[in-house]
Amino acid sequence: MFSRKVHYFKKMDGYLFFSRSYTSTLHKKYSAIPVCSTEQLRKIWDSKITSFFSAHGFFLLQLENSEPQVLLQIAAILGQIQNNPNTDNQGITNVVGFDTGQKNTVVSSDSFSLHTDGAYLHGLAEINGEPVRVTPPKFVLLQCVKPSDEGGESILVDGKKALVSVLNQSPALLPSLFKPCVSMVHNDLLISDVSIFSRNREGTYAIRYSYDEEMILPKYSLPNISKFNSGLKPTFYQSLTSNQILVLDNKRMLHGRSAFKGDRTLRRVWIYDDTQNTELVRVQTDVKPYYSHKNYSNPLDLFKRYLPSSHIAQSLPLSVGINLPTETDQSIQLCLRVRNQK
Ligand SMILES: O=C(O)CCC(=O)C(=O)O
Ligand SMILES: [Fe+2]
After folding, report:
1. Does residue 211 have its Cβ closer than 6 Å to ligand 1?
2. What gap in Å lies between CA 294 and CA 162, rounded to an integer?
3. Which one, of 250, 261, 331, 294, lies nearest residue 78 by Cα?
4. 314 part of a folded domain
């Protein structure tokens, strides 16, 4: 994800929100919810976490220290940790500004444009021989070990607000945002024909987004997607401080950060999205594939490194994605039908 090197003010089409004049108008600072143990977090789950999370798409915790164990315990409440090539054997990635030579570390002090973590994940792998989907994680956890001396603010954009504002203010953009016409390349992965917004059978929407050089679009949709990008407005713009853990809904919120100075250190954990796995079956038949060549490796192995390591999770309930009132949902669907007919 650190190929996304975008500097302050450089790309005016999409990164206007980094400008000081804009962010100085964003006065609201969220305070963190103090938590001294996972038992206590479980106790305040229903009263303090679920409603805040459903209103804002994230929650911010203030812990008493920044041990990796604390992060892992919070992660265990949310589900199964999803691996990726940068994670250590516990599923943690270190996000730092200077190269310390440490393994399982991603290094950059540049700004990070708004993105969905793992936006480029749209594949299949096998768990115990059964096909499962590999998609962007449902939650992203960022633990602040050491804040920066200057800059390094975390930035969140609410995809729910972005979608509603497109519906109300520029509905002509909707078809480009829902059309499965986006491709992304990431290291050795290529995914094609996904959409920026999608709606599942239960009527929940999800965003998948990373507006950078790895995104490939049909030329005709570029003006619309670039307009969408310039209209994104952050709802959260503040530095994480020591011992805080930010938990965000990666199906709803886009996140990024401003450039920084100093040896800021975060740890990052992904939580696997297991919500779609019941959908996949192999065709029950004696018919053999008409041709297969032994020289190829199993393509289901390509996404294996993005699977969770364990499948036992006693997670607390917290639903992810963009939930809209029925009327808004219907307006979007109607708008897409009418405009797709044109
Ligand atoms: O450094 C940060 O605040 C965020 C890093 C990030 O978004 C990532 O590692 O995917
Ligand atoms: Fe990220």
Report:
1. no
2. 48
3. 250
4. no
Rounded to whole angstroms, the Cα distance separating 159 from 205 reads 9
Ligand 1 atom 9, closest CA: 95
Which of 86, 239, 268, 306 best tests ligand 1's pocket when mutated (most atoms within 8 Å of CB)? 268
The CATH number of the domain holding residue 233 is 3.60.130.10
- Which ligand is nearest the CA of 1, by number? 1
Q: Cα–Cα distance between 159 and 249 in angstroms, integer?
A: 10
Q: Ligand 2: distance of its center to the CA of 54 in Å?
A: 20
Length of the chain (residues)? 342
Q: Per the structure block, which two tokens stand in for 209? A: 């987004």
Instruction: Tell me, yes or no, whether 225 lies in a domain.
Output: yes
Residue 280 to residues 14, 194, 208, 234, 253, Cα–Cα distance (Å): 37, 18, 21, 36, 27
Measured CA to CA, the distance from residue 37 to residue 160 in angstroms comes to 31
The total of structural domains in the chain comes to: 1
pLDDT digits (tens, 9 = 90+) for 49-86: 999 999 999 999 999 999 999 999 999 999 999 999 99
User: Which of 1-5, 65-69, 216-220 has the weakest average pLDDT?
Assistant: 1-5
As a whole number of angstroms, the longest Cα–Cα distance in the chain is: 66
What global pTM score does this model have?
0.91
- From CA 229, how far away is CA 221, in angstroms rounded? 12
Q: Is residue 97 part of a domain?
A: yes
Are 260 and 97 contacting, i.e. CB atoms less than 8 angstroms apart? Answer: yes
Ion ligand 2 nearby residues (CB, 5 A): 117
